[in-house]
Design brief:
The structure holds two protein chains of two kinds.
Chain A (H helix, E strand, L loop, with lengths): L11 E7 L5 H11 L5 H14 L13 H6 L6 E6 L4 E6 L7 H9 L3 E7 L6 H12 L4 E7 L8 H17 L6 E4 L23 H7 L13 E7 L6 E5 L4 E3 L3 E5 L3 E7 L11 E3 L3 E6 L10 E4 L6 E12 L5 E2 L4 E5 L2 E14 L6 E3 L5 E2 L4 E14 L10 E6 L2 E11 L9 H9 L6 E7 L2 E8 L13
Parallel strand pairs in A: 1-3, 1-4, 4-5, 5-6
Antiparallel strand pairs in A: 2-3, 7-8, 7-14, 8-13, 9-12, 10-11, 10-14, 11-13, 15-21, 15-23, 16-20, 17-18, 17-22, 18-19, 18-21, 22-23, 24-25
Chain B lengths: L9 H19 L3 E4 L4 H13 L8 E4 L6 H13 L4 E4 L2 H5 L8 H20 L3 E3 L16 E4 L27 E4 L7 H11 L13 E2 L12 E2 L5 H10 L17 H7 L4
Parallel strand pairs in B: 1-2, 1-4, 2-3, 4-6
Antiparallel strand pairs in B: 5-6, 7-8
Helix pairs in contact in B: 1-2, 6-7
């Protein structure tokens, strides 16, 4: 099914992160300017603003389009700007560096496959440099270049570059991030942006523009087990169509499929289409598709389809997750939130906070001292869901291994699944609990055998030690 | 086992993402409508909706008619709506026109009254929870900061300085009654992508975009405020070739944008599309 040679290579999304005032918008503006990627109108507009306000021409204004951003000289919201090289199209995502706008930084980074982490060559590694790096690791972005910026202010000295390379490298290694390159640049002066700088002969590597083309985009995971979360079921005409996007793997007419959490099996009979040219017999990861199946039992949004024989997703009601909180109101134990994972939505509560992590220092606080998770905090917690869902560990499948939490009307946090947890031991229905209370022996031990929250059998012993109940089937 | 693997190119990826967004909007938002400005972007959007829903369009299309549109646009609108059997709502802020509103009262004031206010009237009259709009990030600075699902409060205002995080494809689908969501399935597309997709899919497009006598429209709007560009591009191939080499911006011919350095930001804050 090869396509014509004229097809465009898929674009690459790159997020630019780092501490406030380390020059993210300036580096990007300069890159766009030096590569002639800006329409004449955009430059005219910035020149007009500079003229009207009596300020010098700022490359950053090319991205910081909001009036407030230009007046205050900071990026408030994430911007996406496109530019192209002979190799491919890029989307450069400029993320704000101010701590107050971390939610916008995460919004930008969540859409990226690779990152440029910018560090001021004179100021060195700062709080947000580290926090942003942590967020990259949490979001699974492993392709990172570190740009040591403002080298002009650091006298273009190799020693300044080497020191930052050492400091940042040590921190990143703790997060499991190993930058592919460190590049000394000056966004303002244009050193090592579009062309090699004459001021830093000691730097043997590529300028940024060449280095970008060396990054490899994420390949759609076509050779993995199928993950097709059901988005909707349509019955506009005589066809009953299960619609969704293939997040991993591939699917063909005739394949036997299993639908989780239930695990029911059926067969794909057709890929419906509107126009004859879209007729097909197989579909691959990345496609928004639809299928008709042989057995028309009840299907619903949120279920995940795999091929029979493929590794199935995990299922359960308790998840160990790593999450970041962006809500003004703290995340509290035993409060109800809505969890959205893939196309599933389910009520969720934080059952326990395992550890709270300072994303800037990596210091950890033990669970027993922590009662809530505040704005911009990162934590490892156990989530308890009201109903069973299908999911994956983030390290296995990104799209079905990450989630957001909705507080009231707003997305207030997000995170990744680390593992499925067993059902909590000794979960009794109220009826079972009353029964147990009425049958407690005077001295000795009551062993309660529970299945699905209901008592199956009681056993009394005369032993004194109550050792607890460790789940099903004792 | 060797199996042919189809590699998705840029247009495949954009199409898949836009269809995903349309399906999310249809599933999660209550009453939904799609703005159809007759231009190339919203016509691509119409096409994507047909694909997403297998030839059906399960929501109405809305045209906010300022009565200042280029006459060919209206003829084209009525013809295509009939051919594709669209449920089309045409709305005009007649009260403002009767009160004498027009571009001579100031372009921003005119856009504000005939487009923004007109749009608000439709949203209110029909009680829409979601409006699908074909804006793109590469068009203009304030649009580059938009979210895919962007909430509008009762007054239709865009609280752009305090936008919520939008993570992966988990869009904002929870909001109080009276608010609505602007859905932007084409945010990630650029002008060239639109034209290459029109060529690939053979989408019927209004012929004002094709050069006649050395001029063509690159962006369509009201007759009074939309200029033509010098161009010999009278075929899709030629338009695509021209755009690969142009250095002028797409909206350079749209006069309302030039009224003020922050014209679009100001218009959009109030609810402009």
């Amino acid at each position: 099914m090869g396509k014509a040679l004229e097809q465009k290579e898929a674009g690459l999304n790159i997020v630019v992160v780092g501490h406030v005032d380390h020059g993210k918008s300036t580096v990007i503006g300069r890159l766009l300017y030096d590569t002639g990627s800006l329409p004449q109108g955009a430059i005219d507009k910035v020149e007009k603003i500079a003229h009207d306000t009596g300020k010098p021409f700022e490359y950053a204004y090319l991205l910081d389009a909001f009036e407030e951003e230009q007046q205050q000289g900071i990026t408030i919201d994430t911007t996406r700007i496109q530019f192209s090289t002979a190799k491919r199209d890029y989307v450069i995502i400029d993320a704000p560096g101010h701590k107050e706008f971390l939610k916008n930084m995460i919004s930008g980074a969540a859409g990226a496959e690779a990152a440029l982490l910018i560090v001021d060559g004179k100021q060195g590694v700062q709080e947000q440099s580290r926090r942003h790096a942590y967020m990259l690791s949490l979001l699974g972005i492993k392709k990172v270049y570190v740009l040591v910026n403002k080298m002009d202010l650091a006298g273009y000295a190799e020693i300044a570059f080497v020191k930052i390379k050492h400091d940042m490298g040590a921190f990143l290694a703790e997060l499991g991030i190993y930058p592919l390159k460190y590049i000394p640049v000056s966004g303002l002066q244009g050193d090592n942006i579009a062309s090699k700088s004459v001021h830093m002969p000691w730097y043997q590597g590529e300028p940024l523009l060449e280095a970008l083309d060396l990054l490899e985009g994420e390949q759609a995971a076509v050779d993995r087990a199928l993950r097709l979360p059901i988005q909707d079921v349509y019955k506009f005409d005589s066809r009953r169509i299960i619609a969704g996007r293939i997040e991993a793997g591939q699917l063909a007419v005739g394949d036997e499929i299993a639908i989780y959490p239930g695990g029911r099996k059926t067969k794909v009979v057709a890929f419906p289409y509107w126009q004859a040219k879209d007729q097909r017999t197989q579909a691959f990861a990345g496609a928004s598709t639809g299928i008709q199946v042989a057995d028309e039992f009840f299907n619903q949004r949120g279920e995940i389809i795999t091929r029979a024989g493929d590794t199935p997703p995990l299922t359960g009601k308790r998840l160990r997750v790593s999450l970041f909180w962006l809500g003004k109101k703290p995340l509290q134990l035993n409060r109800r939130y809505k969890l959205k994972l893939g196309t599933q939505e389910v009520e969720a509560q934080v059952e326990s906070i395992e550890k709270l992590i300072d994303a800037s220092s990596l210091d950890q606080r033990a669970a027993d001292t922590v009662k809530e998770i505040r704005l911009n905090d990162v934590a490892e917690v156990i989530l308890k869901l009201k109903e069973e869902i299908a999911f994956d560990r983030f390290q296995d499948y990104q799209a079905t291994g990450r989630f957001v939490l909705v507080d009231g009307y707003d997305v207030a946090g997000g995170g990744i699944v680390l593992a499925a947890e067993k059902e909590a031991p000794g979960e009794f229905s109220q009826k079972a609990m009353r029964y147990i209370m009425n049958h407690l022996p005077q001295n000795g031990e009551l062993i309660v055998v529970v299945k699905d929250g209901e008592i199956v059998r009681l056993e009394r012993t005369e032993r004194e030690v109550f050792s607890g109940i460790d789940g099903e089937g004792i | 086992m060797s199996q042919a693997i189809e590699t998705a190119d840029k247009l495949d990826k954009l199409e898949a993402e836009s269809i995903y967004i349309l399906r999310e909007a249809y599933k999660k938002l209550g009453k939904l409508g799609m703005l159809w400005s007759i231009g190339k972007d919203s016509t691509v959007l119409l096409w994507l909706a047909k694909k997403a829903f297998y030839g059906h369009c399960p929501f109405p299309f809305i045209h906010v008619d300022t009565k200042h549109k280029i006459p060919e646009m209206i003829a084209y609108r009525d013809r295509v709506a009939k051919e594709l059997n669209l449920d089309l709502i045409v709305h005009t802020n007649q009260a403002a026109i009767d009160a004498g509103m027009g571009p001579d009262k100031g372009r921003l004031a005119c856009c504000q009254a005939l487009k923004t206010e007109g749009l608000k009237q439709v949203v209110k009259e029909y009680g829409f929870d979601g409006l699908i709009v074909g804006v793109r990030r590469d068009e203009e600075g304030s649009r580059s900061k938009e979210r895919v699902f962007s909430e509008r409060k009762e007054d239709d205002a865009w609280d752009y300085a305090n936008q919520l995080p939008e993570l992966w494809d988990q869009f904002k689908t929870d909001f109080p009654k009276g608010h609505h969501i602007r859905v932007h399935p084409l945010l990630a597309w650029n002008e060239l992508d639109i034209w290459e997709y029109i060529r690939r899919e053979n989408i019927p497009i209004i012929d004002l975009y094709f050069a006649k006598n050395g001029k063509r429209y690159r962006s369509l709007g009201c007759a009074c405020c939309t200029g033509q560009i010098e161009s010999e591009a009278d075929t899709l191939d030629k338009i695509i070739e021209e755009l690969k080499h142009t250095t002028t911006s797409e909206r350079a011919g749209r006069k309302q944008d030039q009224e003020d350095s922050y014209a679009m930001q100001k218009l959009r804050k109030e609810g402009y599309m």
